[in-house]
């Protein structure tokens, strides 16, 4: 599903963020990407989102060679990738329902479909009763659940989660990771960038370790012993 071959990403200042990595992730996998700050984790996510272009090497997602993707096709490609981030990135002036519905409105989903899909997603993340609430009225964990619902409402093939528990307490972090497991069990490929060693050890999924732009370890379902 996701294949990188000899990928290099160097910035104009000469800094090499990714230094020749090759990687394959199968459809339906749950993968943790771990490493210190500056190891290349976030750059890898940006390459998969086609926010950045590789300096060298090739990237294929769902059989599509990203290197040759025309600019006009990028929005359509991104619709099949859900994203959640540490800072939630919710629209503060819109309630929970509208935050999730926004992801469908931008791709001109019929209103009838939105009225069906949004409540279904809010139910999935346990926020069916909070649809009228605004982000400021929610806890951090609830805001992350809204972000997950928004990321999932367009039925993405892949969910990219960049430090999704970074601003949450341990109990809430475990709840969010359990939800990610449930999403993965429904067939969505999940990639989680995290510094949370305890969660990685507990879930025991595939772990890809990065350091200074290279992959230094790739353990399948063995957990990460830091």
Automatic annotation (TrEMBL):
GO BP, one annotated term: cell division
UniProt keyword annotation of Hydrolase present: no
Entry's localization field: Cell membrane
A Pfam match: ABC_tran
GO molecular function: ATP binding; ATP hydrolysis activity; transmembrane transporter activity
SUPFAM superfamilies xrefs: P-loop containing nucleoside triphosphate hydrolases
Membrane topology: Peripheral membrane protein
Residues forming coiled coils: none
Acyltransferase as UniProt keyword: no
Keywords associated with the record: ATP-binding, Cell cycle, Cell division, Cell membrane, Membrane, Nucleotide-binding
A GO cellular component annotation in the UniProt record: plasma membrane
InterPro entries: AAA+_ATPase, ABC_transporter-like_ATP-bd, ABC_transporter-like_CS, ABC_transpr_LolD-like, Cell_div_FtsE, P-loop_NTPase, Sigma_54_int_dom_ATP-bd_1
SMART domains, alphabetized: AAA
Domain ABC transporter: 2-225
Function text: Part of the ABC transporter FtsEX involved in cellular division.
Subunit structure comment from the entry: Homodimer. Forms a membrane-associated complex with FtsX.
UniProt record similarity statement: Belongs to the ABC transporter superfamily.
PANTHER family noted in UniProt: CELL DIVISION ATP-BINDING PROTEIN FTSE, IMPORT ATP-BINDING PROTEIN
UniProt name for this protein: Cell division ATP-binding protein FtsE
């Amino acid at each position: 599903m996701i294949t990188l071959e000899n990928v290099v990403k160097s910035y104009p200042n000469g800094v090499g963020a990714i230094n020749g990595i090759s990687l394959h992730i199968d459809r339906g996998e749950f993968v943790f990407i771990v490493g210190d700050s500056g190891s290349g984790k976030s750059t890898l996510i940006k390459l998969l989102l086609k926010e950045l272009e590789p300096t060298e090497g090739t990237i294929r997602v769902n059989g599509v060679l990203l290197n040759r993707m025309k600019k006009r096709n990028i929005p359509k490609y991104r619709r099949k990738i859900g994203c959640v981030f540490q800072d939630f990135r919710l629209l503060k002036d819109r309630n929970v329902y509208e935050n999730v519905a926004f992801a469908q409105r931008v791709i001109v989903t019929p209103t009838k479909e939105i009225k069906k899909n949004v409540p279904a997603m809010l139910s999935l993340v346990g926020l069916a009763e909070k649809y009228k609430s605004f982000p400021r009225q929610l806890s951090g964990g609830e805001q992350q659940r809204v972000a997950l619902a928004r990321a999932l409402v367009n039925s993405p093939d892949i969910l990219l989660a960049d430090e999704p528990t970074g601003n949450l307490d341990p109990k809430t972090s475990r709840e969010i990771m359990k939800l990610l497991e449930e999403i993965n069990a429904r067939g969505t490929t999940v990639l989680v960038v995290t510094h949370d060693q305890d969660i990685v050890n507990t879930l025991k999924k595939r772990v890809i370790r990065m350091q200074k732009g290279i992959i230094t370890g790739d353990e399948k379902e063995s957990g990460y012993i830091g």
